[in-house]
Design goal:
The complex is a heterodimer. Chain A is globular. Chain A contains no helices and eleven strands. In chain A, a hairpin with a 6-residue loop joins strand 9 and strand 10. Chain A is mainly β. In chain A, strands 2, 4, 5, 9, 10 and 11 form a six-stranded mixed beta sheet that branches. A five-stranded antiparallel beta sheet of chain A has the order 1-3-8-7-6, with no helix packed on it. Chain B contains no helices and eleven strands. Chain B starts with a strand and ends with a strand. Chain B is mainly beta. In chain B, 40% of the residues are buried. In chain B, strand 9 and strand 10 form a beta hairpin. The chains are: A mainly beta, B mainly beta. Chains A and B meet through strand 5, strand 9 and strand 10 of A and strand 4, strand 5, strand 9 and strand 10 of B.
Chain lengths: 110, 111
């Protein structure tokens, strides 16, 4: 079993839709949690950190469920520009090194 | 912009040759990382550094070595390149516990 798992998709949704991604992890000692966005042939860019209390940034909401060991990302009112691959990254090491899921591909359709 | 540059950005090399990739940061952050990204595998950690001359292995370190003689530079060396090391290589820095930023990547093709 992989340490971090994501549904690879692809998710094809119409503009304006709400879409949610989950990411499960196996190491219960994991400390920090992140969602990254990666556009084609570009570097991953930090979208948001994920806190136990949940956090929101505009149309994006991230949540952490430690008991069930998963994090989620909700995108409301999807825009064409949201089309990208979304990666979850989880830190469980003393040097903050991240383990990533393989990414979920999202395409928002007009 | 987290002040990370990588060089070269693209490289084609032949099997058996040594290759060195450079990651440079402008802000003196302690933690630096090398990842590779391949279809179906996502990002995998090769090596990381937690200070000058302090490095450790990641998940896929075989065939790679690193050096960090200055805070701002983290070098990744493929000792004898193989076709399986064809990949996109990303350097990253940890700014805080809650922020890790990536460089623009190096596309390496080993023929």
């Amino acid at each position: 079993r992989k340490e971090v798992e994501q549904d690879p998709g692809p998710f094809n949704v119409p503009e304006g839709a709400t879409v949610a991604f989950n990411c499960t992890y196996s190491n219960s000692a994991s400390q920090s949690f992140f969602w990254y966005r990666q556009d084609c042939r570009k570097e991953p860019k930090l979208l948001m950190s994920v806190y136990s209390s949940g956090n929101e940034d505009g149309r994006f909401t991230a949540q952490l469920n430690r008991a069930s060991q998963y994090i989620s990302l909700l995108i409301r009112d999807s825009k064409l520009s949201d089309s990208a691959t979304y990666l979850c990254g989880i830190s469980s090491g003393s040097a903050r090194q991240l383990t990533f899921g393989s990414g979920t591909q999202l395409t928002v359709l007009p | 912009d987290a002040g990370i540059t990588q060089s070269p950005r693209h490289k084609v090399t032949e099997t058996g040759t040594p290759v060195t990739l450079r990651c440079h940061q402008t802000e003196n952050h302690r933690y630096m990382y090398w990842y590779r990204q391949d279809p179906g595998h996502g990002l995998r950690l090769i090596h990381y550094s937690y200070g000058v001359k302090d490095t450790d292995k990641g998940e896929v370190s075989d065939g790679y070595s690193v050096s960090r003689s200055k805070t701002e530079d983290f070098l990744l060396t493929l000792e004898s390149a193989t076709s399986s090391q064809t990949s996109v290589y990303f350097c990253a820095i940890s700014v805080t516990e809650e922020t890790q930023y990536f460089g623009p990547g190096t596309r390496l093709l080993v023929l």
